[in-house]
Amino acid sequence: MTTNYQLKRADFIFKNENDWEEVLSKNINRSPQELINELISSELKGRGGAGFPTGLKWKLSAEAVDETKYVICNADEGEPGTFKDREILSRVPFKVLTAMAVCGHVIGAKEGYIYLRGEYFFLQPELNKAIGEFEYYCKEINLDFKIRIFMGSGAYICGEETALFESMEGKRGEPRNKPPYPSSCGYMGKPTVINNVETLAHTFTIFKYGAKRFYDLGVQYSRGSKLFSVSGDTPKPGIYELELGMSLADFVDEFGDGDTKAVQVGGASGFLVPRKRFSETAIGFQGKLTGISLPTGGSMMLFNSSRSMFNVLDNYLEFFREESCGQCTPCRVGCQQLLKGIKAVKRGEKNAQYLDKLLRLAETMQYTAKCGLGQSVANSFSSIVENFREEMIY
Amino acid sequence: MNPVSDLIRNLADQYGRNRHNLLPILQGVVEQEKYLSEFSMTEIARELDLPAADVYGTATFYSFLEHKKMGKYIIRVCKTITCSMKGKNQIMLAIEDMLKINVGETTPDGNFSLLQTNCLGFCHKAPAMLINNEVYTELTPEKVREILSSYLKKKGVHNDN
Amino acid sequence: MAKNIKITINGVTVEIEPGTTILEAARQTGVIIPTLCYHKDLCVAGNCRVCVTEIVGQKRLTAACATPCEEGMEVLTNSLKVRNSRKHIIELLLSEHNADCTRCYKNGNCELQLLASEYKIMTQDFIRLVPFKKYSIDMFSPSIIKDDSKCIRCQRCVRTCAELQGVNALTVAHKGDQMKITTFFEKTMNDVVCTNCGQCINHCPTGALVEKNYIEEVWDAIADKTRHVVVQTAPAVRVGLGEELGFEPGSRVTGKMVAALKRLGFDAVMDTDFTADLTIMEEGTELLTRLKKVLVDRDEEVKLPMATSCSPGWIKYIEHMYPDYLDHLSTCKSPQQMFGALAKTYYAKARNLDPEKIVSVSIMPCTAKKFEANRPEMHDSGYRDVDYVLTTRELAIMIKQAGIDFMKLEDMHYDRLMGESTGAGVIFGATGGVMEAALRTAYELVTGRDVPFENLNIAPVRGMDGVKEASVKIENPLKEWAFLDGVELKCAVAHGLVNAKKVMDSIRSGETSYHFIEFMACPGGCLGGGGQPIPTSPEIRRKRAEAIYAEDEGMPLRKSHLNPEVIKIYKDFLDKPLGEKSHQLLHTKYTARERF
Questions:
Q1: Given this structure, which CATH class describes domain C96-211?
Q2: Does residue B94 sit in the same domain as residue B154?
Q3: Could you tell me if the ipTM is greater than 0.85?
Q4: B42 vs A: CB within 8 A
Q5: How many angstroms away from the CA of A360 is the closest CA of chain C?
Q6: pTM for the complete prediction?
Q7: Cα(C528)–Cα(C534) distance, rounded to whole angstroms?
């Protein structure tokens, strides 16, 4: 199956934000219901990777009854190959701040936090300056909304929303059991909307231009545009805003170096797609029309034929061995077994059939891990071993 | 009074003394001291009325909250996939060669510690590294030597011991 | 109340209360779902993933312990997917576990071993991870051995230490493959705030946390014919021991236990209950003396409320956490240590034995007692007062090793001199028991009448509420206690150190004004002690408590001051409570310790 959707560039996210004051004051005078409806009809889905409908997320938190609620911007961008959130926060911070304040208006929250990963410490001064300016304007228009930065300290797992709450509460960043969900019980046990930086930036677009403008981009089930972080063996690494739904073949035509052997879509926790499946793979959220469709936080890593897929997988698994929070068995022990397993096969200490045992283990990890990240850590293993089995053995 | 105790009290005054203020306080101590000593953690536990074991358990979860003595400048070289593909090992060799330390070690004068870290989010400008909070990208061995030289020339680097 | 909801488990429709988890629903309907990190005493963690179940229509499996049922849910607990996944998880745990089962202290009573055996994990397909890790065994504590190579990171011990005990000696540290259960800066257990209560042992599913055992030392002592080996048994042991030897929880096996100890070869089998009664005499007198000094003499040096001092876990806790409150502790040694001091003095003299030749062994429901016996100040007899402390579990091991068919033993009686007890001594084993025993005696001492509760049963201090309160109004006292007329004696009872913390904080803040408080480190008191049979649960502890109170009801004497051997020891040896000899042998001092 091939997809008919072509690569189309878009330019919303980084378009100037000079009118944020206008967008803010206009939208906080609209009713929460109206804003929620606008978001729902835009069909915006979370841009962190999980793809939860943003309008529904806000709606659920708006419906939760509590004096105190929170809006949290998830800027713990730790997925290997992803670097878009930093660009957004440094180039168009007011879009994100505005979106947070509108969200606060919608759900009834007076406090917002930006959870910024420790690696981006250097963003702080500029961002704080923007927040200062933003809050000054809020005061002027009598909007009671405060935003603070909360710094992470080097823990990939804190990008998982409940781990992020734990971290903000001064604890180890270990994901919680769900339910309860953040919409009713998030940071400090209060109803919380937590959105990725890019998601918030898109809501700015929607609130500025209306849902239709956004909805008209992309394809069914995968509406709008998205930032892609392009790296690896590419002549033009960087950040690109593209409409969703494009085929991977088109993407590789545009960004490949002519020798692209495989693309890792969605970072280390995403999937590796080999050349033979480029044309049947569409980049977007799961949907009937688009063939194989991969949800993605926007990380696109290209590998050319000089790369050993064994080394790539080894690097990913090494990453997860260290970055798993360690609390649940399938993720903590599973990652160690996958890593030691591929090395043992490579060295001939285990036979090639051992890879099949590990593939079944990868499936168990996907079914049984406690959090979304734990469930996806074995994705790269499965997709690489299935497609490049010989490279694992010889 | 011990300066670290003063620092911790000031941080607690600034951020608060609840559990959810723990991370900013740990970060504040690391910012100043480069690592969390047993003494620091005990003082933080005392100041926030938390079990010392919880402070330790929390701090050790986070890669940037070191609990072993670190140098004045902590070099963290990204080892994740793209940086690894784009020559991270050469960067490591250049640093090791120049500073005469291996990964995980601190120079005898206490100025530099060399660590590897997971994805810094500069895959499009790989390889990348952090020196304390400063980021350096598109590194080559030559570039790294220049950067380190500039640190070595910084006033105070050699006068510390 | 909200309407019940209906779900199906393996095709069978079940009606349950909203909020019930899948695990609870399954257990209610007789479906067993294996668990490891789950424990009835603790909050839900959901991290071992052994209890995963399938919900029809969902791709991912869900942890039964952490997932509330929803109307119409179709749950499968034994589908192929569940079984394969569960087996994988057990295999993963085993790959990270030092599965050297035959050389493990917990061999035969290990939840992981049981699961491995149920799922017939016969092969070692996954790579053994143990050799790659730098595991250490911490043997420095006199009470607890911590072997990280056997830890499965279920965090039951961490939750126990935090939720039940409020001690937080244990924590989870690091992440990823380095994640481990440890202490502050990975110090040894004897170098941190650990109270040695052993609740972590009781809640550990594997052999990662076990008591330091002294079984071989005791066998050696018994075998040494030049030695006279005296053994004492704590009140709670008699209602726990049976569980290790084929009896149901709540079985009273006092007579069989005595018979077994004699068969093991102990030269004298006597009862800690005797010194429990003696404790009441000393502690009761101390309380009345303190009351007089405070109420009449207005002596500001003397502190109220007075706190009990029988529980060594509690003692170490207050020494660490409230070192400025040590004056509130009764100076009485625990019954174990009183017994030890008397065994090598009073008993030695009466039996004409050289105290140097006496080996004093105690059977305790407790691991903190091992630490207590090891305290440097516990040498008032001129020798180490108690040489070896064995837990209830260690005694059961010895009985099995000796080939004794416990069930078939005829009941026997304790040896004389320090073997007589009253119901008041027995109830020391349950939370509230020391308080009840003290009130029975103190009230009668002061008024000449029975304590005003039906059948001497002081119901308000019984039961499993974490903090219990009682007050007794003193009316028409005897002449020498006239100053107590009309005084309402306010008492509190706390068990589980997290509850002790509540009471201590209320004292510190001044919101309560008790006269006398009983503190026990372990949930349920000694019957739920860290040396008692594993498993433990609220239900099991309730049954043991029932057994304790039944034992009390069945005793001819139920007040400590009526114990004929207690009367005799004051006449022959001690003279009077708080007398000079008592001070020398039966009372002690405490050590302020660091909290951090």
A1: alpha beta
A2: yes
A3: yes
A4: no
A5: 9
A6: 0.96
A7: 10
